[in-house]
Amino acid sequence: MVTPRFPYPTTKGDKLRMFQAIRHVSRRHSVTLVAAADEPLRPGDVEEVAQYCKRVEVVPISRARSVANVALYGAISKQPLQTLYYRSARMRERVRQVLAESQFDVVHASLIRILPYLWDIPTPVVIDLVDSFARGLDIRAQTVSPLLRPAYRLEAERVRRYEQAACQRFAQLYVTAEPDRKAIGAANVSVMRACVDLEEYTFRREGRSDDLVVMTGNMGYQPNVDAVAWFAHEVWPLVRAQRPAATFRIVGTRPPQATLDLDGRDGITVVGWVENVSTELHAAGVAVCPVRVGSGLQIKVLEAMATGTPIVATSFGNAGIGAAPDREIAVADEPAAFASELLALLADPAARDRQAAAAHDFVEREFSWNAGADKIERLYEASV
Question: In angstroms, what is the C-alpha Rg of the chain?
Answer without folding.
Answer: 21
